[in-house]
Design brief:
Elements: E1 26-30, H1 32-41, E2 44-49, E3 66-67, E4 74-80, E5 94-98, E6 102-108, H2 114-127, E7 135-141, H3 148-157, E8 161-164, H4 166-170, H5 179-185, H6 191-199, E9 211-217, E10 226-232
Parallel strand pairs: 2-3, 2-4, 4-5, 6-7, 7-8
Antiparallel strand pairs: 1-5, 6-10, 9-10
Helix pairs in contact: 2-3
């Protein structure tokens, strides 16, 4: 008589490298092989989520390896954040997912080059330890939509662009309005107002969290100046296919 062996069905646990795919998260640095192996083995894997919607946590199977608190049994870590890697625990393999939550508002003079725009954004992100993979969209006033430098930048970096009319930006309360900008653009703010408008529908600036006010970037060897502000949205941007 043949002996019947009942096998316990394997848990359908999403590998760490696929965790953010349904939400449009961008994969960052880390030891993906080691963390995936820890998930497969069922080791305790700590998840630190600082950005993006956390609703995915409610759809996990009853038995899963993810720990959302602190545990001495942690064998690997998954960071979900808009920040750049800092690898606090060299003995524990870590990986980074970057939800697209950062709306980058920019204002600049006509004819500003792609190189200066790119350098300005990189400078602000480096200064505030932000991950460029977490960029949702570049946002600005609609009169800049046809600027060659901006178009070249978005094409090169594959960043989506969204523009707003001056009357829309004028309705947004910002920390640092400028009479000079208002005279030239028809709104007291471009970078800050665009960043806020992109990340939030009707949230007052006083209630914003993780908001980087405008900073003006110049280079002695290049003509023009770029103003950059960054607002972090509560929910990640997911690009819908048509």
């Amino acid at each position: 008589m043949k002996r019947m062996v009942l096998l316990k069905p394997a848990l359908k646990i999403t590998p760490a490298e696929m965790l953010g795919v349904p939400f449009g998260w961008r994969r960052g640095d880390g030891d993906w092989v080691a963390v995936n192996a820890a998930v497969t083995r069922g080791d305790v894997v700590q998840v630190i989520q600082e950005a993006g919607c956390p609703l995915w946590q409610k759809n996990l199977p009853a038995e899963h390896p993810f720990e959302f608190g602190v545990s001495p049994k942690v064998k690997a870590k998954v960071w979900i954040t808009a920040k750049v890697p800092h690898f606090l625990s060299s003995q524990i393999p870590e990986v980074y997912w970057h939800p697209r939550v950062l709306w980058v508002g920019i204002g600049f003079q006509r004819g500003t080059s792609r190189h200066l725009l790119e350098a300005a954004i990189e400078h602000i992100f480096r200064e505030h330890q932000l991950a460029q993979q977490a960029i949702a969209k570049i946002v600005t006033i609609d009169t800049k939509a046809e600027e060659v430098g901006l178009a070249e930048l978005c094409q090169k970096r594959q960043w989506a662009l969204k523009t707003f009319a001056a009357e829309v930006l004028r309705s947004i309360s910002v920390p640092h309005p400028s009479p000079i900008v208002e005279k030239e653009a028809g709104t007291p703010s471009v970078a800050e107002a665009a960043a806020i408008c992109g990340a939030f529908s009707d949230t007052a600036s006083e209630a914003l969290q993780n908001f980087i006010p405008k900073q003006i970037f110049r280079r002695p060897t290049q003509t023009g100046a770029v103003t950059v502000a960054v607002a972090q949205a509560e929910i990640e941007y997911i690009e819908l296919s048509h």
